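Appendix C reproduces, verbatim, an entry submitted by the partner laboratory led by Prof. M.T., so that reviewers can inspect both the input and the predicted structure.
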Amino acid sequence: MTKACTSRCAPGAGSFDRFICHQVGSTHRRKLYETLGLDLANLSDDLRKRYKIKDSVKGVVITAVEPGSAGADKQLKAGDTIVEVAQEAAANAEAVQKRIEALKKEGKRSALLLVANADGELRFVAITLQ
């Protein structure tokens, strides 16, 4: 089901069992598909332009949401940006994955995400960790 990364996404990217890496042009995306149903990418100038994300927004951008997933149930959409996971800044896609895995190991059944839309409006989303 999960396959190791064969491109140069990040050091050790192939070891993340919940991620599958995809090469898209010169950028790489990681899909946290099994737990949240989200396709995530580090915020870049290209992604800011594509989703019209303001410069003030910092975090990890959602590039796709699987229908029927935990992310879809919470009405997350492509172009939303994860700013924090359980009150820790989302510095990059790897940090989001590590925080989700840590919460699961702690026995948490859900994670509180701080999510910004393209205009920078913030909302909290409690998402199930399955």
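The chain is about 20% helix and 35% strand. Additional entries are available on request from the coordinating office.
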